[in-house]
Specification:
- With about 180 residues, this protein is α+β, with helices and mostly antiparallel strands.
- It is built from five helices and six strands, in the order αβαβββαββαα.
- β5 and β6 form a beta hairpin.
- The chain binds zinc ion.
Length: about 180
């Protein structure tokens, strides 16, 4: 799958010195983190995130900073197997960011930036059709930077911690304590 056309986004750091894991091994390590973050999104009332599927995609890791992506219909999150070797906060941060994209795509036009704080959610059922189609049009025309910032802002809203945005999908800091999967070290 060509990540450039069907997916966007990707953070990371150089983990190439870690041992190589098979897809199945990587899936077994990464999937619990992915589900822990999904639980946070579901707990925030974002029921559509139930349908997001996880794929481990080696082809994704085509640069030291490419570890995750989200399909732009929100149906799937792709993570590189190398992520299995990353520290907990990095894995959780990337999952939370990718779920931010998935949510943004699953609820078109609903989430908007709010001055660097958590994303604001527009009350769709209270907005008249004409206004909504205007907003939706603008939502479809957003720049990539805005899309990335929105993913962070949605993650901020759901996880309750601010997100350190450092350029295209680079995630520097994230408070993982709240979301650490039980039994994972
Ligand atoms: Zn992103």
């Amino acid at each position: 799958m060509p990540a450039s056309s069907t997916a966007r986004c990707l953070p990371g750091s150089d983990l190439s010195h870690f041992p190589h894991l098979s897809i199945d091994e990587a899936y077994a390590v990464i999937e619990p983190y992915f589900e822990v973050i999904r639980e946070e999104y579901l707990a925030a009332g974002l029921k559509k995130t139930k349908r997001v599927r996880l794929f481990i995609a080696p082809a994704m890791h085509d640069s030291p900073r490419h570890f995750g992506a989200c399909k732009d219909d929100g149906s799937a999150i792709l993570l590189a197997p190398e992520l299995a070797n990353a520290p907990d906060p990095v894995v959780l941060a990337i999952c939370a960011h990718e779920f931010g994209h998935a949510t943004d795509f699953l609820y078109p036009g609903e989430f908007v930036l709010d001055h660097g704080g958590p994303a604001q959610r527009r009350p769709k059922d209270q907005i008249d059709d004409k206004q909504w189609s205007k907003w939706l049009k603008a939502w479809h025309q957003r720049e990539d930077d805005v899309i990335e910032l929105t993913a962070d802002a949605v993650a901020h809203r759901v996880m309750g911690v601010p997100y350190g945005y450092q350029g295209p999908c680079w995630i520097q800091s994230f408070d993982a304590v709240r979301a650490r999967p039980m039994g994972l070290r």
